[in-house]
Structure formats: C-alpha cells, structure tokens
Write a structure and sequence with these properties.
With 297 residues, the protein is mainly alpha-helical. It is built from 12 helices and no strands. The relative contact order is 0.14.
Length: 297
C-alpha cells in the first residue's frame, strides 16, 4: 500500500461535491451570526473526511459484493488494481473513522464550548449517523445502496444534513427558508449519483438495484433533468423569498454549465458519460462558492 494508492481510493476529486453543501450552509449562517474561523476549519475537515470514508467504504463494499468487475466502465481503484489488499483497506477505513470522530468532536467543542449540552449531543448523534450512512452504502449484508435507496440517503446527508447542519453549527440558529438551498444541493448531489448509475446500468444489473435501473435509460435521463431543474427552482425561490440584493444572484452565472451537463447526459452513453460526473460536481461547487460570496459580501 502506497500513498498514491491511498489517494486514488480516497477519490479526492469528489470532495468539491460534499464541500458544496457545507459552503452553502456557512453562507446561510452569515444571515444570523459571524461564524468562528475554527468552527469553519473543523467543519470542512470533518466533511472532507466523511466523503473520503464514503469513497473507501464504497470501494471495499463493491469489491466484497463482486460489483467491481473487469467490465466496469468507471475508474479502476486500488483494490481492483491490486495495489491494496482488503485488510489494508479495512485498516485505512478504521483510521479515517477515528479522524472523523476526532474532528467532529473538536468542531462541536469549538462551536458550543462543551460536548454535554442537548444541542451538542444532538449534533454528535447526527455525526454518528453520517458515519453510518457513509459506510453502509455498499458495506454490510444488506447495504442500502444495493436496494435503490442511495438517492434518498444522498438527498438527506449531502443536502439537508450538510447544509442545515453546517448553518446550525456556525450560527446556532435555524430558519425554515434554509431548507430550499439545502434541498437544491441535495437534488444536484442525487444527480451525480444518477449519472454514475446511468453509466453503469449494464454492470450494476447483475448485483444491485438502482433508481436508474428501475426507470430505464430514457426515464433515468428525464429524472436527471428534473433533478437539475428542481435544484435551480429551489435556489431561485430562496433568493426571491429572501429579498436578495442583486449580487446575491451571482451564482446564476453558472447555469449554462448545468445546461451543458444535461446536453451531455442526453447525447452520451456508457463510458462517454464519465466527463459528465466531474462537470456536475464542479458546477455545483462553483455555484455554492458564488452563493457564499454573494451572501457574505
């Protein structure tokens, strides 16, 4: 096992997607309070580690369930390439779980000054649930990702929990209208998973059930269009209801990227869809960055 093989399996290129929700939540917190720098640092670290944990667990789970075969169209990772054993992957996952717990504890302590209030304990319980969700997507005897439930969990943890949790940790506040951008990030995050599942429909059919398989190629693309469109409608609704200043609409300049993404999804098949994954990830990330800039200035 080398540093290179570890980084390959960690899939660092996926981090902008998970950070998109946190950045959106940080932006929302500026409406209620000035976030503490240390809270932001450990919030970002914890989020990145949870994404890495999810990536490592998915590779191990797919290997153990026989999903990652030679016919797989996506990128080949360390176990499949023989660069890391199953035991080494399990050890690496254990290290990342420990780091997730440590950073999460420090984040809550920095935010509330204690770990023993109801709010702090509630957030720690939510963090434990996030660790469980990150690992059980493909790991275990009955992983939820193999039963067509991945979309629901992605919406909850990459959207609602990521955005609302970050906003609450930073501001100790909650506003119902914040659900709109949280749901938007959730929709776009499902979109990343859905494109991956459209690409892998042929190989997935033998080992798992996904929403894309249930819908079929055409309806799965309609579903993708609905997800992207709904995300933008939710973001626009939030800005309209918040009486946003003109520069708080700055994030709308990324909308052509989402249109290009949908064009690619409708006109490409199989491995040609690979580039549509990072395109949606980076488009979502850039939108969240501009959303953050617009609100915080």
């Amino acid at each position: 096992m080398t540093v290179r093989s570890c980084l390959k399996s960690m899939r660092i290129r996926t981090l902008p997607l998970s950070l998109s929700g946190v950045l959106t939540g940080i932006a929302l917190s500026y409406e209620a309070a000035q976030p503490r720098p240390y809270v932001i640092v450990f919030l970002l670290l914890t989020t990145a580690l949870l994404q890495i944990l999810s990536n490592l667990s998915n590779e191990l789970g797919d290997t153990l369930h026989g999903t990652d075969t030679a016919d797989r169209l996506g990128m080949r990772y360390s176990i499949q390439e023989g660069e890391m054993s199953i035991g080494q992957m399990q050890g690496l996952i254990a290290v990342i779980v420990a780091l997730c717990c440590l950073c999460g504890l420090i984040m809550v302590w920095c935010s509330f000054g204690t770990l023993f209030t109801a709010r702090a304990i509630g957030l720690l319980a939510l963090g434990a649930a996030a660790i469980w969700a990150a690992m059980k997507y493909t790991l275990g005897n009955n992983p939820y990702g193999y039963r067509g439930l991945g979309d629901i969990f992605v919406f909850i943890f990459f959207g609602l929990v990521s955005v609302m949790g970050a906003a609450y940790v930073c501001s100790h506040n909650f506003k119902a209208v914040w659900i709109l951008p949280a749901a938007a990030i959730g929709c776009w995050s499902i979109g990343v998973l859905n494109v991956n599942n459209i690409r892998d429909m042929k190989t997935d059919a033998a080992t798992r059930t996904t929403v894309a398989l249930k819908l079929g190629p055409r309806k799965a693309r309609i579903y993708q269009t609905i997800l992207i469109t709904a995300g933008w409608a939710l973001m626009a609704a939030f800005s309209a209801l918040s009486a946003a200043r003109w520069f708080e609409w700055l994030y709308f300049i990324t909308s052509p990227l989402f249109i290009l993404h949908l064009h690619g999804v409708w006109t490409r098949t199989g491995k040609a869809l690979d580039s549509m994954l990072p395109m949606l990830v980076m488009s979502t990330f850039l939108t969240s960055v501009l959303f953050c800039v617009g609100i915080s200035v």
